[in-house]
Design brief:
The structure is a homodimer. By secondary structure, the first copy, chain A, is of the alpha/beta class. Chain A has twelve helices and 19 strands. In chain A, α5 packs across α11, α6 runs parallel beside α7 and α8 runs parallel beside α9. The N and C termini of chain A lie close together (about 10 Å).
Chain lengths: ~350, ~350
């Protein structure tokens, strides 16, 4: 088969790769229905955290089970399945407490390269969640979104303790931040403030349930949030960027005793201890334990109660994956769907 | 009256100061039954964060109400009262959510200098909690402890989400860390691990309910905690020091999804974002909202269900306050009680 490989900064190619095969008896092979480009794929695409080896890319996936390892018990050939970007056994004490992305056996799916027509998924029984039946095509983008971008936004909102009556601020208007709006709305937030200066993203945020848009950033952005909240700050803030500026904007926008959920992969961040001490906010973040949320999210998508597939504003054949990266890098697209 | 004043590094004197008087109509004046030296007083005593002005010292207090401002409604002359080191109105939205140390009107009591025979307490109705009746002398040390050291340890345990069945680690064997043992025991922790290499403190930790002592620090200490927890780390870790080493030891000792409550006043700490991201622990800390816990803690002390007064292993007349600082600085005493 062919698949996406990153050779160097801004050099993604659709090239021959080995067909994936069962390695461990707990693996399955899926035939990809759709995959996509993640905001976090842009870091190595831009030359940050890049490997010096050609690297298979992609970690978001959904598709049909083609082949099943001999120790796989729950997942069956022919099922439509979604999984997270971390394979997990879903049974260790860490998984059982809801942190499957830090499973004692966690394996990053990125290493397998999901931007390809076939994918090996380790620990299949723990990792994958099947849909009740084969979904119609129009639900595939939404189901794909549950694999990472929606699951990550959901974790951000959960980590930020979003609840009915709360004022929620979202820092970062990428696909994860936009999905966090869906989550905050679903969790009953009273006020959802999206910090964005990009018209198309503001529009989608409003469609998903944002009640306010703040275009200012940094100290000015924080001042706007204080103005909106009687000087107190938000109850819950979701950080979906990963930079120092975004983290400090999130912490400073939150009231004492409030919660910051941070899901942007951290790049060059150092949190000043004394400011954090006197900020007195709850902090929780990291790679989202998407597996915890998958059954609920798949259900919400299948019942068409939410439509996270709208974050895909560009759809390309998989062989045009390089253009998919470029469009996101240049912010011409929020998120690129790739169809084999 | 006389009171403790810091003139420079290691130069605390008991000198003439103005008698405190009612300034705002919401103030009261209390006659001190006992006060003490805090671990955080040692930072300026050692020349760190020191003011270049002579500074009245002390922020822990309990005593008898002598004089009441005209707008004080609940607190009465003659009551025995305890308050926190932050005055708070106990009615603003931040107070109502349990973060009185960040009250919109919060005023640090340290500015008043509690190491003295009399003290002005602002926002008295919100700040002070009276005992049901005048306590016998032997309960005064325990009641004084609720004012900060116990309340702070309690907040650390609460912030670390200590609960029945949990394994709790405490980094820091000062009076706050030792009081955190009392809190963890009261909250039903199954295993309480004190990290300490000081025999007398280990002994008191065990008396308060610690089940294990770890003498190693840094990476070796973390490895010991992993060994004790099937490689996973603690559910709940309380940090009661405030240094980079202690914070990292606390974070690394905690399992993914676990909780770190940090109450050591932060000195030179910078938390590395990427490590924090992949640690995936809950973080909450800051100046303890002691007022939230005071009614319960006063009740527990008055009913003699807990005895936090044991952290005072040195009692001196107030005029010997300088020796009280020296004894703690040299670790000859855990905590010094001062009696006017």
């Amino acid at each position: 088969m062919k698949g996406a490989v990153l050779y160097g900064p801004r050099d993604v190619r659709y090239v021959d790769r080995e067909d994936p095969k069962i390695v461990e008896p707990t693996d399955v092979i899926i035939r990809m229905s759709a995959t996509c480009v993640c905001g976090s794929d842009l870091w190595p695409f831009r030359g940050i955290d890049i490997s010096n080896q050609p690297t298979a890319m992609g970690h978001e996936y959904c598709g049909i089970v083609e082949e099943v390892g001999r120790e796989v018990k729950k997942i069956k050939r022919g099922q439509f399945v979604v999984g997270s970007f971390f394979a997990s056994d879903n049974s260790c004490p860490i998984c059982q407490s809801g942190y499957q992305s830090r499973c004692v056996q966690a394996k990053p799916l990125g290493a397998e390269g999901a931007q390809a027509p076939y994918l090996r998924v380790p620990l299949a029984d723990g990792t994958l969640v099947p849909t009740p039946e084969l979904p119609p095509n129009e639900l595939v983008p939404g189901l794909l979104a549950t694999s990472d971008v929606l699951g990550t936004g959901w974790f951000g909102a959960d980590a930020a303790a979003v609840a009915p009556g709360k004022t929620v601020v979202i820092v970062g208007d990428g696909a994860v931040g936009l999905c966090a709006v869906i989550a905050a709305k679903h969790m009953g937030a009273e006020r959802i403030v999206m910090m964005s200066r990009h018209t198309a993203r503001q529009q989608l945020a409003r469609e998903f349930g944002a009640t306010d848009i703040v275009t200012e950033r940094g100290d000015e952005g924080v001042a706007c949030i204080k103005d909106l909240t009687s000087g107190l700050g938000a109850h819950s803030t979701i950080e979906a960027v990963g930079t120092q500026e975004a983290m400090m904007q999130a912490i400073r926008s939150t009231r004492p005793g409030g919660h910051v959920g941070y899901v942007g992969v951290s790049h060059g961040v150092a949190l000043p201890g004394l400011e954090l001490f006197f900020a007195e906010v709850h902090l929780l973040g990291g790679p989202a334990p998407v597996r915890r949320f998958l059954p609920e999210l798949i259900d919400l998508v299948c019942q068409q109660k939410i439509n996270p597939g709208k974050v895909f504003d560009l759809e390309l054949p998989l062989e045009q994956v390089a253009e998919g990266y470029r469009a996101m890098d240049e912010r011409r697209a929020i998120k690129t769907l790739l169809v084999p």
